Amino acid sequence: MPRIAIVEDDEMARAVLMEHLRRYESENSLSFTIDTHTEGSALADDYRPVYDIVLLDIEMPGVDGMAVARAIREVDGDVVILFITNSPQHAISGYRVAALSYVLKPVPYSVFAAEMDRSLEQVRRRERHHLMISSGNEHHRVDLSEVLYLESNRHRITVHTRSAEYHFTGALKDLEAELTDKGFFRANHGYLVNLAHVTAVRQSTCVLTGGRELQVSRPRKKAFLTALADHVGGSRL
Predict the structure, then answer these.
(1) Which of 134, 135, 130 lies closest to 147, judged by CA?
(2) Residue 98 — pLDDT band, cuts 50, 70, 90?
(3) Cβ atoms < 10 Å from Cβ of 125
(4) Kind of pairing, strands 101-104 and 80-85?
(5) How high does pLDDT run on average in the chain?
(6) Is 67 exposed, middle or buried (CB count within 10 Å of its CB: 0-12, 13-18, 19+)?
(7) What residues pair up with 166 in beta bridges, in sequence order?
(8) Which residue ranges does the record assign to the HTH LytTR-type domain (predicted)?
(9) Do 81 and 98 meet the contact criterion of CB atoms below 8 Å apart?
(10) Beta partners for residue 158, in sequence order
(11) Which of 3, 93, 177, 231 could form a disulfide with 195 if both were Cys (CB 3.0 to 4.6 A apart)?
(12) DSSP assignment of 78-145
């Protein structure tokens, strides 16, 4: 479910964007999680990379949209930023913060829908390289290249990355189905390993980046070695 932020100080403009999003949902059989912010500082001061798309007004009192975009880009290089503006003169500045595009007010639905098509296509391309994790009110978008392995213990999943751990409730078999074609392999009942981080294979274990050693079950070892060889060979093409 795509997560979208509307950052717009004008109540009528916010209502129009919300109406457009709901219409787009209905016409495309989609469902969005939508947060609204009336001030740029509300998003910029404590931004976390949980959004897929940010609809961002440029002309706002206090912290303007361009400053918000710069703050976002300091911690999130992937979120799609779509500027909503009264003036086309901001277009060049938008490229400096890697905004996908800008839309002039008043925003006609046909233009909005076309930009949403582009935005969601970019989100879909990005999702091939990320794992979305939700636990309670916490949401994280984790770069798969940073994931060492996933561990399951009584339906409690721990995602081990180079620098952090994330916990949520889930089934490892569901993650296996999602991640197998992205370079992950089920080394044993409790671990799903990122093959890109395997640095050595021993008699009954594999060694990961940083020295962590995980058990490879005997019934899975042959398939594990085959998957590892295919992954290494494919990465060199």
Answers:
(1) 130
(2) low
(3) 9
(4) parallel
(5) 88
(6) middle
(7) 159
(8) 131-230
(9) yes
(10) 151, 167
(11) 231
(12) SSEEEEEES-GGGHHHHHHTT--EEEESS--HHHHHHHHHHHHHHHHHHHTTEEEEEETTEEEEEEGG
Specify whether the CB–CB gap between 57 and 7 falls below 8 A.
Answer: yes
The vertex-114 CA angle with 108 and 116, nearest 5°, equals: 100
Structure token pair of residue 126? 């990005």
Tokens of 109: 């639905």
Q: For residues 230 and 191, what is the distance between their CA atoms, to the nearest angstrom?
A: 19
Percentage, residues of the chain above pLDDT 90 = 59
Number of other CB atoms surrounding residue 32 within 10 Å:
16
Sign, CA torsion 21/22/28/32: positive
